[in-house]
Amino acid sequence: MFFSYKSIVKKIECSEKLILNDTDILSYGNKRICYYHAKNSSKIIKISRDPKHWKEGHRQSLTEWHVSDKVKSEKGACPISLCHHWINTNKGPGLLVDRISDDKGESRTLRNLLFKRELTVKKAIDLVEETIQIFSTFGVPASDFNIDNFILDGAYDEYRIIMVDGFSPKKTNFKTFLLLNSSVLANLYAKRKWRLIKDKFTYCAQKVYAGDYNFAAAMPLSDNSNCDGLKANQ
């Protein structure tokens, strides 16, 4: 496969244990929980919701980590939250990831910007499609175009967004191996995923922009995420 559990476990065991508190929780996902890094405000830690079966909970973390390493070796900036290294915590193995924020230090998703009417639905869609176009130059197999998976980066007048979750497949199988190692397949995969979700994304964005409180905040789901799912992001 494209990673080695043995090498990951070794890195985790060799790292100093970081103590995480429930007050540091940033968001919950179906498989993962995001914590603020108490000692480094520019980073967050993604943790499996089930520490005893962390490999299952961290499947997408593993593929995100691989994609992150891949784009780091390319020229230019890719609009994803970069993953750095695996660490040991009192909540189980964690993945250290960049925390994305605006010029005021706040992490605001497209949902938040739409609800506050600081962004139009058309602009939100344009930003996502521009991001997908950039992905095509890096071969990023983005899989989950959830409205909460995009966060404003930097100044508002620049309107640059970063995908913080779902920029890789959720499974660790042979299909994923092919997607992670073929830019052509990755690009076809990401564009197909967007075509399938675009109508739902647009509907959700319109509801949020209209001020519908049923869509104003992300709600937790028991299984597959959709435009209303609370994602393990920033």
Explain how this protein is built.
- This protein is α+β, with helices and mostly antiparallel strands.
- It has helices at residues 5-14, 54-57, 59-72, 110-115, 121-138, 174-181, 183-209; strands at residues 25-28, 32-36, 43-48, 83-87, 94-98, 150-153, 160-163.
- It has a five-stranded antiparallel β-sheet with strand order 1-2-3-5-4. A two-stranded antiparallel sheet has the order 6-7.
- Strand 2 and strand 3 form a beta hairpin.
- The radius of gyration is 17 Å and the shape is globular.
- The model is unreliable at 219-234 (pLDDT under 50).
| Number of helices, counting only DSSP H or I runs of 4 residues or more | 7
Strand content: 5-15%
The 3D shape can be described as globular
Distance between the termini: 29 Å
Computed structural class: alpha+beta
- Low-pLDDT stretches are 219-234
Secondary-structure element pattern, one letter each: HEEEHHEEHHEEHH
How many beta-strand segments?
7
Largest pleated sheet: 5 strands, antiparallel
Helix content: 25-40%
Question: Reading side by side through the largest sheet, how are the strands ordered?
Answer: 1-2-3-5-4
Radius of gyration equals: 17 Å
**Residue-averaged pLDDT:** 88
